[in-house]
Amino acid sequence: MIGLVHPAILGLPVMAHVSINVSGNVETVGRDICRDERVPFVSMTAGSMSLVAEIRVKNHHELQECVDGIREIEGVASLRTSTYTELEVDVLPTVQVEQVKVDDLDLTMLEVIRRNGRATYASMAAAAGVSIGTARMRVLRLLESGTVRIGTMWRPEAHPNMVRVGVGISIRGSVQTVRSDIAGLPGLAFLASSIGRHDLLATVHGDDFQDVLATLNAASEISGVHNLETWVHLKVLKEQH
Asked: In terms of C-beta density within 10 A (0-12 exposed, 13-18 middle, 19 or more buried), how is residue 118 classed?
């Protein structure tokens, strides 16, 4: 069980997807990228690029630093970046960050819940240095407001036969209109609008490739979709929420 909090609430409003081409041992390079705390997701892929990664940082200056750091890793031949503008679908339902106001005590509670969705009020109180009653009141308010969502995270090792495919989508016209249509497709586990290489970035899960193919075919038929670029996740090296 985890607690999912929108990265912007945790002070990480800038998010990006990076496609990386590797010369040499892909897993070694991927493990090097995993060492950066600003990179919560790294996966080895089959497709036009060797690895994909996600970056979550405080500002665009830090994003540039992180991208430059990846580029300087031995074995990284090239990379391409798309910056997220809005999360539509994530591991658990996302919240409207404009409506959320949190203080330092809330942030402490959120960090405990984010790491362990089964954390007790006593453990949260100890982490924050407050009474159990205060911790309980704060956590209930955060849950009721939708600031944090608690649920079970999908883990690749628990579903060894699950097919996981990334999709980069190019759009004609309004991204917002197409995004809402894409969000309703079966098997969609992640969807974000972005600026850069792709207009939309998605992840589709399926019991087999036939399931994923059906979703991809449905996506290609949506009005406004110009092109789909896909990659298969072969091995997830790091995934944090």
From this structure: exposed
The secondary element (H helix, E strand) that includes residue 13 is none
Nearest one of 17, 26, 3 to 52, comparing CA atoms: 17
Q: What is the pLDDT of residues 67-115, one digit of tens each?
A: 999 999 999 999 999 999 988 887 655 555 555 678 889 888 888 887 7
Measure the CA–CA gap between 23 and 194, rounded to whole angstroms: 27
Does CATH place domain 101-145 in 3.30.70.100?
no
Please write the tens of the pLDDT for every residue from 180-236: 999 999 999 999 999 999 999 999 999 999 999 999 999 999 999 999 999 999 999
pLDDT above 80: residue 121 = yes
Q: What architecture (CATH level 2) is domain 88-93+157-236?
A: 2-Layer Sandwich (3.30)
Which structure tokens are listed for 8? Answer: 């912007």
Please name every residue paired with 53 in a beta bridge, in sequence order, or none if there are none. Answer: 18, 42
Residue 12 structure tokens: 């990480």
Whole-prediction pTM value?
A: 0.80
